[in-house]
Amino acid sequence: MIGFDGKKGLVLGVANQRSIALAVARQLDALGAELCLTYGPDPKGRFEAHVRGFADQMNVTQIHPLDVREDGDVVRLFANLEQAWGGLDFLVHSVAFADRDELTRPFSQTSREGWNLALDVSAYSLLPIVREGSRLMRANGGGSIAVMSFIGSVLAVPNYHVMGPAKAALESAIRYLARELGPDNIRINAVSAGAIRTLSSSGVKQFGDMLKVAGEHSALQRNVTVEEIAQTTAFLLSSGASAITGQSIYVDCGYNIMAN
Ligand SMILES: NC(=O)c1ccc[n+]([C@@H]2O[C@H](COP(=O)([O-])OP(=O)(O)OC[C@H]3O[C@@H](n4cnc5c(N)ncnc54)[C@H](O)[C@@H]3O)[C@@H](O)[C@H]2O)c1
Predict the structure, then answer these.
(1) Is the pTM of this model over 0.85?
(2) Maximal C-alpha separation, the chain
(3) Is the CB of 201 inside a 6 Å radius of any atom of ligand 1?
(4) Structural domain total, the chain
């Protein structure tokens, strides 16, 4: 039911060995999928080499650069996929960015530029990707999409700041996209993941405290692992989740249901 033999899909957001997207790609690879990976902009130029190295260990047949702020990149990426694959079965959006400075000031001090950048990369970017990706999914008679979110979309999490509204926008967007794409048999869901130590989360001040609190106050009294997030993502993308769309599914050891 959750096999991906013969399925082709795109995973956005692998930067290094800690990336949630890498765990998701490895899970999908283990379940039989053929993958396309992308690498985002990196001032130090390491992401491409990382992605190519990881790709060697998986059934990755396409690797492309992608800056989600560049519409031309998005169009080029899907034109390449259309030429190579004809259609697309699934896609994973695991991309976010906020300027570190914006996460260290009080929330009300967020600059207009900082707000626009965080919401552009972390939320708006889903729309052009889905626009292009859904075109290829229709060619296959349907498909499924997963995005990564965080509980900061609905709760005021210390130091998460501008990323909270960005994740709220992302989760709202998946509901509107689910309504729009449902008639074409395309599903879209968010995985609201518990805290994981990654490159992105290192930009959140006192992230270690967040991990400690989540570990102590979750129903399961531990932190989630990146493999558990990847397993649920694969499930949501699979035919096993064929009636699930427009949802934000918490994969956080039950942290979100606890009152303290
Ligand atoms: N780490 C956590 O605790 C946590 C918890 C819940 C949700 N998430 C979400 O998971 C997703 C992946 O984050 P992660 O924690 O694995 O960190 P990460 O830093 O490994 O991944 C973030 C990715 O975003 C990409 N990116 C940033 N700007 C981009 C741009 N302009 N164009 C293209 N790509 C760009 C980076 O290249 C990187 O691959 C994000 O949406 C994040 O908000 C993370």
Answers:
(1) yes
(2) 52
(3) yes
(4) 1
